[in-house]
């Protein structure tokens, strides 16, 4: 079974530029999560989708971050405009049926200069 | 509020030593889940174990073992006879039982992680 796929793996941009990350969850997984992991810290949830609806986006900086999950499969996370403090690893995870475990993708490492 | 504390920032051991990674959690929920994930240098979080709050039985999987004690709100992880391949950052995480929408558990609250270095 294929795991969670993410792209790109690395991205370097300058502050005030825009960037987008893509995630393809494990086939059949209805729940999708985006986490932000700043260097030296544990991941923190940005947004959670159930199919194509948002369950929790309370920690998403909505003035600059946006995310969508059209058709309830792939998801895109966008930052516009980026700030220096957005430098982090962005992890996508998915979960299948009730009570199952979250499985993570390899992440996208973002560096904002 | 939910919180996970991993007091050990870094641990360094020599191969074949046993090592225990500590995890202390806080929650007001009576039903919750605890997890351990491994993050090797490649960056991907690898699932190791999930425990629900009603199952305090310790678990052993090969060289790995977990000690869950509700009385002290701890969920410690021991690696026996450590190997160089065990070098990674290990995260303990906590979640509530129900996110109220999907029927499954809520977001994961992670600790800050413990970096384990196993030297030959």
Provide a short characterization of the protein structure:
Chain A is mainly beta and 113 residues long. Chain A is built from no helices and 11 strands. In chain A, the strands form 2 sheets. In chain A, strands 2, 4, 5, 6, 9, 10 and 11 form a 7-stranded mixed sheet that branches. Chain A has a 4-stranded antiparallel sheet with strand order 1-3-8-7, with no helix packed on it.
Could you characterize what this model shows?
The complex is a heterodimer of chains A (113) and B (120). Chain A has strands at residues 5-7, 10-13, 19-24, 31-37, 44-50, 53-56, 65-68, 75-79, 88-95, 103-104, 108-112. Chain A has 113 residues and is mostly beta strands. In chain A, the strands form two sheets. In chain A, strands 2, 4, 5, 6, 9, 10 and 11 form a seven-stranded mixed sheet that branches. Chain A is globular, with a radius of gyration of 13 Å. The mean pLDDT of chain A is 93. Chain B has 120 residues and is mainly β. Chain B is 0% helix and 51% strand. Chain B contains no helices and twelve strands. In chain B, the strands form three sheets. In chain B, strands 2, 5, 6, 10, 11 and 12 form a six-stranded mixed sheet that branches. The radius of gyration of chain B is 14 Å and the shape is globular. The termini of chain B are far apart. The model of chain B has no long low-confidence stretch (mean pLDDT 91). At the A-B interface, strand 4, strand 5, strand 6, strand 9 and strand 10 of A face strand 6 of B.
Number of beta-strand segments of chain B: 12
Major pleated sheet of chain B: 6 strands, mixed
**Cα-atom radius of gyration of chain A:** 13 Å
Structural Rg of chain B: 14 Å
The global form of chain A is globular
Give the % helix of chain B: under 10%
Largest beta-sheet characterization of chain A? 7 strands, mixed
* Count of alpha and pi helical runs of chain A: 0
Percentage of residues in helical conformation of chain A? under 10%
Residue stretches of chain B low in confidence (pLDDT < 50, at least 5 long) are none
Q: Average pLDDT of chain A, to the nearest integer? A: 93
**Biggest interchain interface, per-side counts:** A-B, 31 and 25 residues
Quick one: how many beta strands of chain A?
A: 11
**Ends apart, CA distance between termini of chain A:** 37 Å
Number of helices of chain B: 0
* Global mean pLDDT of chain B: 91
Classify the secondary structure makeup of chain B into a structural class.
mainly beta
